[in-house]
Amino acid sequence: MAQSLIAALEYAGVSVDLASRLQTRDGRGQDVRQREIMEAAKTEVHRLIAEGRGRAWDGWVTYHNYYKAPDLIGPQVAAALNIPYLQIESTRAKKRLTGPWAEFARSAEKATDAASVVFYFSKRDGETLKRDMVLDQQLIHLRPFLNRAEIAYGSVCNGPILSVGMMRHGDKLASYEIIAQSLALLPQDGWQLEIAGDGPARSEVEALMQPFGANVRFLGQLEDDGINLAYDRAGLFFWPGVNEALGMVYLEAQAAGLPVVAQDRPGMQEVLAPNTYPSVDEGAQGLAKMLELYLQDQTLRHAKGAAAQSFVADHHLLPQAARTLREGLAKAGLSL
């Protein structure tokens, strides 16, 4: 996503410097580690102020400031250089102001307070940002987007079901469990499933799919060309989306002209084309019903896939993202 944001800014006509490679994330909530990072950030601030003066930066943009990885340098550098400070995909988490990330959470909150403009992807994040926003701060909804300017291909929706997801324990494995439960409710002929992905939970995923035998094919981890071919030959896309924040695979699948079978979850609502999706309460039964409906009707698959592709083309590509970013830069006082 960070690379896509740089591409969108450049598409909007902005010259982008990657100012720092300092990694501030502490995933374990370790006080000693956080103090080490904060000391390193102080040194980085001094270096960047000097560099910024030499390069005449016009503004500073920080991506993904949150309690585990606060922006410890941007606000100070922007203030010293007297340039606008903006954030993209920042989150507020007041409950983290106590506990193992308390100091980092305070730093993240302080950094967001300093931003004149905050772009948010998720409407849920937008709600908390609005709740805690400071005076005169601008909040702008930036729709999640693919790093491409147009859609160049589309599936004829006459192939296998496709699932794409890393094989990690936790939420990803939970989605695979729901996939297996749903497949068990289908007739055991007339469908094929291809799975793209790999990871530490692969053996558990393979065990879940073992009852379906040759109906399930594992593709492993695919690079861009491979995953595009998988989308191209698929008939529909199936991923329940347990606790997905944004679900970028849904945008990829829909851009390929695939209808999507997923549960109606908050993160999905940001990226899925308008349709009726089964609720979480309906469980595997609701997903199996939707799968059967699509499996029995290629015309429906193609129509829904075409509508999904148009949805992505209209709202979730580089030109739309660049337009939104330009709007925010202007509100921060930056002219292009």
TrEMBL record:
<feature type="domain" description="Glycosyl transferase family 1">
    <location>
        <begin position="177"/>
        <end position="309"/>
    </location>
</feature>
<keyword id="KW-0808">Transferase</keyword>
<dbReference type="InterPro" id="IPR001296">
    <property type="entry name" value="Glyco_trans_1"/>
</dbReference>
<dbReference type="GO" id="GO:0016757">
    <property type="term" value="F:glycosyltransferase activity"/>
</dbReference>
<dbReference type="Pfam" id="PF00534">
    <property type="entry name" value="Glycos_transf_1"/>
</dbReference>
<protein>
    <submittedName>
        <fullName>Glycosyltransferase</fullName>
    </submittedName>
</protein>
<dbReference type="InterPro" id="IPR050194">
    <property type="entry name" value="Glycosyltransferase_grp1"/>
</dbReference>
